[in-house]
Design goal:
The protein is α/β, with parallel strands linked by helices and 249 residues long. Helix content is 43%, strand content 20%.
Length: 249
Amino acid sequence: MADQVDLLLDGRLVLLVDDDPTVLEVCRAYLESAGFRVQDAADAFVALDRIAAERPDLVVLDRMLPGVDGIEVCRRIRAQSQVPVIMLTALGGEDDRIAGLEAGVDDYLAKPFSPRELTLRVQSVLRRALAVEAAGAAVAGSEAAVISRGPLRIDTAAHTVDLDGRRLALTQREFELLAFLARRPGTVFSREDLLQGVWGWSHGDLSTVTVHVRRLREKIEADAANPRLLVTVWGYGYRFDDPGAEASP
């Protein structure tokens, strides 16, 4: 049915949020056969309660839920947690995808979908999240854990970012994107480069990168419309400029 159990992911808790009992039943069977523990919720309020109480490792979230839709649910999740979120959606338009990305969705899967593909997406997103955690732990306590760039202080072990001494609230992806670029000031990266380097995807929707860059600018720039830190290199991609380096002799 599903792929062989991945020992790194075995026993991780996945929360399925969908009001279709058939979707819940089939997806549960595939995910459990891949070694995951699975809980489910048929509406937003039960889902939010379970996220707070059970702290799942990943959430699979339907876009079209009764009452409170999946976009608003994701916003509420992001207010309390950075748990990875995969959104299931029958709405494939660019505006719908961007709305989800702006709410903090990590990945999309269009309906109708293969439960085997969902299982592979869950594994991929979780592996990426665990790799980020491991990288932060590996540098904990070392000077390399802190990246100082002008007004920004990025602590990759504590997963915090301060701007002129003020703590910023970044999503996991925003943090990863900022840390990736800040480690390599002056280097230009295409959206494809960033999709591979930050998301770990060899292909995907490039608007994912565009949306995250825009959201990140809104949080780190004095004027997001005229960025000085995270700049656009027209025709190619993005570059992080270190104002501290510019001030050096």
